[in-house]
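Page 37, continued from 36.
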């Protein structure tokens, strides 16, 4: 049997930290990066007798996420205790939701190939609290616990095992990230761990009805590692099966450096969490009106922005899709176009040169260092003829390195386009003198000679000559 005879099956459990100001069961702040144990109180430190009170905004945000992913919202639900011991979990249980999650039976649509939409089922979304954090090896090899993160609200979005390739898993996760960003319930900063995924992978022979045994890689927080881990793990499982072995259901650790998965010693699946309703919290009852009100106040989602971009700005379906995939990019587009009123140019710059640089630098759109105003001004300088688009590209590179007003950049660098007729004429004459062969070629009907001459003039002026004027003057001279 070959690799092609197998099918990969993937299901993701995505954890997103909600961007509420305060924690889920106390009023401690949730700001990232504070000094260890400065954002704590008796509740989130689990002092005896301290009682939790549910933060209503957490429920509201989770409902928003549920509605935006086509879930049914439960009018009745509750919080449960999930019992386990770990040093970053001071209560020795996590407050989560077990058999009655807030949201169920949803889906999102992904498109790996343009026009090929696929629904990925969402089993459930529930609310829970985050654990603290262990800082290893800081002092003489020991570990210190920081409880700032303990009690930060999370939603866990559990997908059906509906994905069939690492590409589909990536598209799904990008979709979830984009939706959460659009509805403003999480900042989704993967590098800060506010969006992370448990990745479940199994393989089965094509055509089989039953799923194979899955393995799980927990807490993955970069697209690149997730893609690599899925591909590695699928191949490893196929190899094991091909050799007549069996896959054990277990939690694996992905190692980014070696590019391999490793078995973790404690097998979490053997654990019994002994869930039971948290007696310290009251049940959650939601009225229809309350849910409807949230529904009516949902911000514009990527799908409707996409349609609007095609109608309002005449962008292609593909470009509209690409722009709206990230809320950050989409906002940048809208803001820049409202300044320079050239939607097509803004879209082109964002999707070609800006995207290329992002790829080269391996960063996401939200790390773009310049503002919409910078981009808009650069485009306006091109539209006015102050700089050529070739210089525009150089300005863009500069905006990534040292973002500031493009006008200042071109002044400092001396990149202002030469549009002075006398100066251009001088260059044209010089180039013509140096290239008699091209003149002969042109006269013999070889139109390409004109392009060559313009190219030479651009080279001589370091891209600063106005290309339209060059073209016109060369033609005038050549046709004399
Ligand atoms: P747990 O919480 O113990 O990890 P769940 O039943 O909630 O277990 O499932 C977790 C995830 O595993 C879900 O996203 C689901 O889609 C995925 N999953 C379940 N079975 C498989 C399988 N055979 N292959 C790949 N993913 C799977
Ligand atoms: Zn607290
Ligand atoms: Mg799991």
């Amino acid at each position: 049997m070959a690799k092609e005879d197998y099918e990969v099956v993937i299901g993701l459990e995505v954890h997103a930290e909600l961007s509420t100001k305060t924690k889920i069961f106390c009023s401690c702040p949730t700001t990232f990066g504070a000094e260890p144990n400065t954002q704590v109180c008796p509740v989130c430190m689990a002092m005896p007798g301290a009682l939790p009170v549910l933060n209503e905004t957490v429920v509201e945000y989770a409902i928003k996420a549920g509605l935006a992913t086509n879930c049914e919202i439960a009018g009745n639900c509750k919080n449960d205790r999930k019992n386990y011991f770990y040093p970053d979990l001071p209560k020795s249980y996590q407050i989560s939701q077990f058999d009655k999650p807030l949201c169920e039976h949803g889906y999102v649509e992904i498109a790996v190939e343009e026009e090929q939409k696929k629904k990925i089922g969402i089993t459930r979304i529930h609310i829970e609290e985050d654990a603290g954090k262990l800082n290893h090896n800081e002092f003489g090899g020991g570990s210190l616990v920081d409880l700032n993160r303990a009690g930060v609200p999370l939603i866990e979005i559990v997908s059906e095992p509906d994905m069939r390739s690492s590409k589909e898993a990536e598209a799904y996760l990008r979709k979830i990230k984009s939706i959460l960003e659009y509805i403003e319930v999480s900042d989704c900063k993967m590098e800060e761990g506010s969006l992370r995924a448990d990745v479940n992978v199994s393989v089965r022979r094509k055509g089989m009805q039953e799923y194979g045994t899955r393995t799980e890689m927990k807490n993955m927080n970069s697209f690149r590692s997730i893609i690599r881990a899925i591909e590695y793990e699928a191949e490893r499982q196929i190899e094991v099966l091909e050799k007549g072995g069996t896959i054990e259901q277990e939690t694996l650790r992905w190692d980014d450096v070696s590019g391999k998965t490793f078995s973790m010693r404690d097998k979490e699946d053997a654990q019994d969490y002994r869930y039971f309703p948290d007696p310290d919290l009251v049940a959650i009852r939601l009225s229809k009106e309350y849910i409807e009100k949230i529904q009516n106040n949902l911000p514009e989602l990527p799908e409707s922005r996409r349609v609007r971009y095609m109608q309002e700005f005449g962008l292609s379906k593909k470009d509209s899709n690409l722009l709206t995939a990230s809320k950050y990019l989409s906002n940048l587009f809208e803001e820049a176009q409202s300044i320079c009123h050239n939607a097509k140019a803004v879209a082109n710059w964002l999707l070609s040169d800006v995207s290329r640089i992002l790829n080269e630098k391996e960063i996401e759109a939200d790390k773009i260092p310049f503002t919409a105003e910078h981009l808009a001004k650069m485009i306006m300088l091109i539209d006015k003829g102050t700089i050529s688009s070739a210089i525009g590209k150089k300005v863009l590179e500069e905006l990534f390195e040292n973002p500031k007003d493009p006008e200042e950049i071109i002044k400092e660098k001396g990149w202002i386009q030469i549009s002075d007729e006398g100066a251009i004429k001088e260059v044209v004459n010089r180039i013509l003198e140096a290239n008699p062969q091209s003149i002969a070629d042109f006269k013999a009907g070889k139109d390409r000679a004109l392009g060559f001459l313009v190219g030479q003039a651009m080279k001589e002026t370091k891209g600063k000559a106005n290309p339209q004027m060059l073209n016109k003057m060369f033609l005038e001279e050549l046709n004399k």
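The pocket of magnesium ion (ligand 3) is lined by residues 13, 198, 216 (CB under 6 Å). Flag for discussion at group meeting. DSSP finds 15 helices and 16 strands in the chain.
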